[in-house]
Amino acid sequence: MAKRKQSIARPSREEAEEAVRTLLRWSGDDPSREGLLDTPRRVVKSYEEFFRGYNEDPVAILSRTFEETDGYDEMILLRDIRLESHCEHHMVPITGKAHVAYLPGTRVVGISKLARVVDAYAKRFQIQEKLTAQIANTIQDVLRPRGVAVVIEANHQCISTRGIHKPGVSMVTSHMLGEFRDNPSTRREFLAMLQSRTCAAE
Ligand SMILES: [Zn+2]
After folding, report:
1. What's the pTM?
2. Which listed residue (17, 99, 128, 140) is catalytic?
3. What spacing in Å lies between the alpha carbon of 6 and ligand 1's midpoint?
C-alpha cells in the first residue's frame, strides 16, 4: 500500500482548482463570472473533507482495545451509522447507513472506533461492495473476534440523478465472517437485533 501511495504524486492545490475551472468550462459556463470565482477553492476544500479517509489508517483506529469486559462475550452491534461516500465510477455521493456487529474474542474496542473505521473507508472513492468487505475484513484482522457482520443500505446518486434516474432505490450489501457466516442462529440473532426497534433510537 505504502508503495502505491508514493507512486501517485498529488497535484498541487492550484492544479486541482484549475481542474475544477476546466470542468466548469466543459459544462458550458464561465469560471470568471462572479458567482463562480470562488467555486474552485470551495470544491477543492470540500474534496479534502469528502476524501479525508485517504489520510486515515483504519488499523491504527482499531488498535486500542479493552480486555476488562467482565466476561462479556455476546454480540455487540452498532446500528444506523450514517454513511457518506462517493461512487468511484461517477464521483457522486452515496449516502445511507451502516450496521456493524461483532462477537468479541478477548478484546473489545470503543464503539466510536467502529464508526470511525466506517468513515475511514467511506471517505474515499468506493463501490459499496468493496466498502462493506473492507470494513468487515479490517475488524476481523485487527480485533480477531469470533465473527463480524457488516450491512450497508445506501442510495446512489449515480442511479437517482443520472443514467436510469431511479430515486428511492436502495442497495443493500452484507459481508459476514466467522460465526455470522457459519452459524445460522448467530446470523438470525443479528438480523433480529437489526430489525428490533424496541430498546433504543426513536
Ligand atoms: Zn456510480
Report:
1. 0.91
2. 128
3. 27
